[in-house]
Write a structure and sequence with these properties.
The complex is a heterodimer of chains A (about 230) and B (about 475). Chain A has about 230 residues and is of the alpha+beta class. Chain A has seven helices and four strands, in the order H-E-E-H-H-H-H-E-H-E-H. A two-stranded antiparallel sheet of chain A has the order 1-2. Chain A has a two-stranded antiparallel sheet with strand order 3-4. Chain B is mainly alpha-helical and about 475 residues long. The chains are: A alpha+beta (about 230), B mainly alpha (about 475). Chains A and B meet through helix 1 and helix 2 of A and helix 1, helix 2, helix 5, helix 6 and helix 7 of B.
Chain lengths: ~230, ~475
């Protein structure tokens, strides 16, 4: 073999193996198998994962287009990586004094999605279970003006996803209540309502509930009564 | 043939090569530099927007929201500036090392226009709300074929130059450049096909994305940067590399470990644990070839430290190599669970990318640009002060960003780990670091403006004209 052929063989072989092992094989193999399990208390038969993706795909497209993954993660890590699963603002219930743990995200939680937006940075809170934490009206108001909900927020305003229009007849049920109007006349005659994109995005956020039970026993409450 | 005749022939040959490379190389360098200006402008805006959404908060400027300006900045920096400038410099170095004239300058320039078209559609697409929120693949899905075709059109001529080489012995820089040009299309097509085209596991697409960013760094930017350094350092110093055998070990080490890196970004995530573990191990092992090569090069520089003071090109190259060492050490530290859990999805992850692309690669490319452009234009750089300002401001800025991003990310993740503290603490924790980074981005912007004005001034011939550049080593050169 000439040295050029050896060179080409070398750079091909050295790249081919990781390409195969990290990219090609996981692409087709890395799907959670649907497993059946029975709830010991109720006797009900459940499946994990559910078999169909339970996220609202149209809203996920808007999520990607607005670059939400630049600041928000959708990945709760196990306790050997930290105690974020005990954060009330990452989970679905509990308070700082009496935390209730949400489980870490698993392979099956992203099953059927087109892309798992695990997140590039965590500047804002994790959104894996945000569907439990707020209602639609809260999300719309937060997207329109984040600082009206959390004054310490560094999130930008997504008011371009909302439209200001004259009230025709009755005020819309979707009209936002946290709009800062310039004068009384505007406040009386105009309303700000979500566009289809905003509705889709909030619809997606409401479906983010990545804690489908899978049968194993998971600690949800701290055994210690004193929170450090 | 006498020595003098051989010398004269060599000079004539080099001059012919420089003339043939002039238009394509200058095109790539200038359009890349224009993209760099766009990138650092967006860089400053996105950094401000991160901690102060009220900055430029007009309704019609919604496209500057962090979620759009951050990926747009990265796209302009990586594709518009880094890859394009890397290709421009690679063309010239290949031409010189293979002693082959650039035969198809028009094709290269047309390909360059296609590349710029792709990047423009990409950056505008992201800003206008068609982005994908994927790291380094944030441009709209339809853009990647344009970039791939343009890249292939350029690289084919690089490879043909190699086959037209005069000398049978192949210098190490040629290996690095060929390797980079071979790996990048494979990496790029793989990532885009497996993420956008082939249906499959959503999580595998996320790990492919992380693999992509890391592979582009280790298998394109690092080889091109090292190839450039291996050319410039001996050329300017006028002495051969300290140990040429080590340079080959460095290349093969990069080849073996490079493709395994990337998934450590998601350690502890919903992946089979061997994936981030293997990637983390590869990043740690990567220290071996990188340290071999960089220490090799720094030792060559140390042999005659007077030269570096008189050569801006060498200063930039040496700084770039130093930042590569720091990047590899910090990446290796971040691959350990104990540190990685704080750095993986925090402010530090952007810091790693900026350090690799701007700290290491861009500094080496600046060195190459300061070396190459006078030779292909037969002009001197108009402002020596501009070059010195560019250097000092860049080094201080990058060093500051390393500290700010690394410690900022750790602090931020630490704040999120305190589960019994309110959300306000976690969100406010990154703010001081983001403000510090914004100040640094102003400095970077100023340094890039100085560089760009110097380049434009040279190209429009408002500077001094000189036949031979003062930077060529007076001792025996290698090409």
């Amino acid at each position: 073999m000439t040295s050029f052929r050896k060179f080409i063989f070398g750079i091909t072989a050295s790249f081919f193996i990781p390409w195969l092992c990290l990219i090609v094989i996981p692409h087709s193999k890395m799907n959670a198998e649907i497993e059946e399990w029975t709830d010991a208390d109720t006797g009900k038969v459940n499946f994990y994962p559910l078999g169909t993706p339970n996220i609202f795909r149209q809203g996920q497209i808007v999520y990607a287009q607005e670059g939400c993954a630049s600041c928000h993660t959708q990945m709760i890590r196990p306790t050997y990586m930290g105690y974020e699963s005990w954060r009330p603002d990452f989970g679905k219930e509990g308070t700082i004094d009496a935390p209730v743990r949400i489980r870490e995200t698993r392979l099956g939680d992203y099953d059927g999605e087109r892309f798992a937006y695990l997140g590039n940075q965590r500047i804002g809170p994790d959104l894996s279970n945000v569907g439990y934490r707020h209602d639609e009206a809260w999300h719309h108001e937060h997207l329109y003006l984040p600082q009206s909900k959390r004054d310490f927020s560094m999130m930008p305003s997504f008011r371009h996803l909302y439209e200001k229009r004259k009230i025709k007849g009755q005020k819309s049920e979707f009209a936002l209540s946290n709009v800062e109007w310039e004068n009384e006349e505007e406040a009386q005659n105009y309303e700000v309502v979500p566009t289809e994109k905003a509705k889709a995005l909030v619809g997606y956020l409401m479906t983010l509930k990545k804690d489908t039970p899978f049968g194993a026993v998971v600690a949800t409450e701290s055994e210690e009564t004193d929170v450090k | 043939m006498t020595d003098e005749q051989a010398n004269q022939e060599s000079i004539t040959r080099r001059s012919a090569i420089d003339q043939s490379a002039r238009f394509p190389v200058l095109f790539f360098i200038t359009s890349a530099s224009a993209w760099l200006l766009v990138a650092v402008t967006l860089g400053f805006i996105q950094q401000m927007k991160m901690h102060n959404p009220g900055f430029l908060d007009f309704s019609w400027l919604y496209f500057l929201n962090y979620g759009r300006s951050n990926p747009a900045f990265m796209t302009a920096l990586v594709y518009g500036w880094a890859i394009q400038a890397g290709l421009g410099v690679a063309i010239w170095i290949m031409a010189r090392l293979c002693s082959a004239e650039v035969k198809n300058p028009i094709t290269l320039i047309v390909a360059g226009h296609f590349w710029n078209l792709g990047v423009s559609i990409g950056v505008l697409g992201i800003l206008l709300g068609y982005g994908t929120s994927m790291e380094w693949l944030a441009f709209p899905k339809a853009v990647w074929p344009i970039l791939f075709v343009a890249f292939s059109m350029i690289v084919i001529w690089l490879v043909t130059m190699f086959f037209r080489r005069q000398d049978n012995k192949v210098y190490i820089s040629v290996w690095y450049i060929l390797g980079a040009c071979f790996w990048f299309p494979w990496i790029f097509v793989t990532a885009n096909l497996f993420i956008h085209v082939f249906p499959g596991s959503a999580l595998a697409k996320a790990s492919t994305n992380a693999w992509f960013t890391s592979s582009v760094v280790y298998l394109f930017l690092v080889p091109i940067g090292l190839g450039v350094a291996y050319y410039l350092i001996p050329k300017i110093m006028g002495r051969p590399v300290h140990s040429s055998q080590l340079s080959y070990y460095g290349f093969w080490g990069l080849a073996i470990f490079g493709g395994w890196t990337g998934v450590q970004k998601f350690m502890g995530g919903p992946f089979p644990s061997w994936m981030p573990a293997v990637s983390g191990a590869a990043v740690i092992f990567m220290l071996i070839p990188i340290l071999i090569v960089t220490v090799n090069q720094l030792m060559t520089l140390k042999e005659d430290s007077k030269v570096i003071n008189s050569s801006p090109a060498l200063k930039f190259t040496a700084a770039g190599i130093t930042f590569l060492i720091i990047f590899c050490i910090l990446s290796a530290l971040g691959s350990f669970l104990s540190i990685g859990k704080y750095t993986q999805i925090s402010f530090t992850s952007i810091g790693y990318q900026v350090l690799a692309v701007y700290g290491f690669f861009s500094m080496v490319i600046f060195g190459a640009i300061y070396f190459i452009v006078p030779r292909i234009t037969n002009s001197e750089w108009p402002s020596l002060g501009g070059m010195q300002n560019h250097f000092i401001l860049s080094v201080y800025a990058i060093a500051s960003l390393i500290v700010i991003h690394f410690f900022g990310g750790i602090w931020q993740s630490g704040a999120y780990a305190k589960h019994d503290a309110p959300l306000e603490n976690a969100i406010a924790s990154a703010k001081p670091y983001a403000i510090g980074a914004s100040v640094v981005w102003i400095v970077i912007w100023i340094s890039v403006v100085r560089f760009f004005m110097n380049l434009v001034s040279l190209i429009f011939r408002t500077g001094r004209r000189e036949i031979s550049s003062k930077f060529v080593g007076h001792k025996k050169s290698i090409a």
